[in-house]
Amino acid sequence: MTILHYIHDPLCGWCYAATAMLEAARARPEIRLRMHGGGLWHPATRLRDGQRQHILEADARIAALTGQPFGAAYRSLLADPETVLHSRPAIAALLAVPEALAPAMLRAIQRAHYVEGQRVVEEGVLVSLALALGLEEAAFRAGLAAAPVEAHINTTRRLMQRVGATSFPTFLAERDGNTEIVPHMDCYEDAAAFVARL
Hints:
This protein has 198 residues and is an alpha+beta fold. The protein is 53% helix and 14% strand.
């Protein structure tokens, strides 16, 4: 059994780019996934022009490399000076769902953000995504309110410091008590090669 530790952020474009790698790994029964949200946009941030341009350039590279879609509504969201990027609500949503549903919730958040241009910092948007996954609204809202987000982000950042991780995403493979970083930068176009590396 290999434990794949996925250090990510729901609002990280390169984590969105890594979707095929993550799904290919999850399809293998000998691999167990553990997700660690790192808080890329924490605290809440309104984008400056330079940040916005950097994101758009990265998005173009991601689309060309992986085929991942970026919708017009998302580009409009980025262009809106009132848009706030904040990782905390999305990470709370991942902690509020059963662990087995967290990857599906992550995909739903990413699609809502990158394709549909929804404001995933808003609780109502996150609730609608949870309902679409078949979750019960009151239970999900209670989970959101109780999610230990700050502790989770702090734990993730300590893990990153311990293993020398400096960016999102980072993949760690744990086997027999030993943990090592799994190189992935050359696998965005070849998820099978990433799985073979595990």
